[in-house]
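Much of our argument rests on the idea that a fold can be written as discrete symbols. Part of our work consisted of pairing the sequence of a single chain with a tokenised description of its backbone. The amino acid sequence and the backbone structure tokens for this protein are reproduced below.
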Amino acid sequence: MVTTDSIKTLRDRTGAGIMDCKRALEEANGDLSTAEEVLRRRGIAFAQKQSARETTQGLIDVYLHPGGRVGAMVELNCETDFVARTEVFKELAHGLAMQVAAMDPKYLSTQDLPAGSQENPSEVCLLSQPFIKDQGRPVQDLINDAIARLGENIRVRRFARYLLGA
């Protein structure tokens, strides 16, 4: 049974549209966690469709760890400046800057790993790392969720981490 309260709860959790939440809940027979997974799968499919679209707008976010010994910069791109000004996009950029400061990735994705590398991608590739605020999800899933919510392609263009004295 799908109720307006369950639709509202799912919408609050995911940021998806009302009708998308209703359809996901109907598909999941009213189970919220299954409906979230349905929406996540749909978001991944949507993100794959958007991936060919050009990203020329965006913002640069900076995170400076308390004490000033570690800092990070991330350039996050999207298709329009309208999306770049949304809170969802700004929060994503800041979360990614915190991720870079905390986890010190060397590469953006597995495609950037040198041939024959023995390094674990979930340790050295930003998009494969577990997100610091939700260890059960890789960073790429977070970006896919933002793509589904905002309706535009989003791409991390580059990042840098600074450590005092290194």
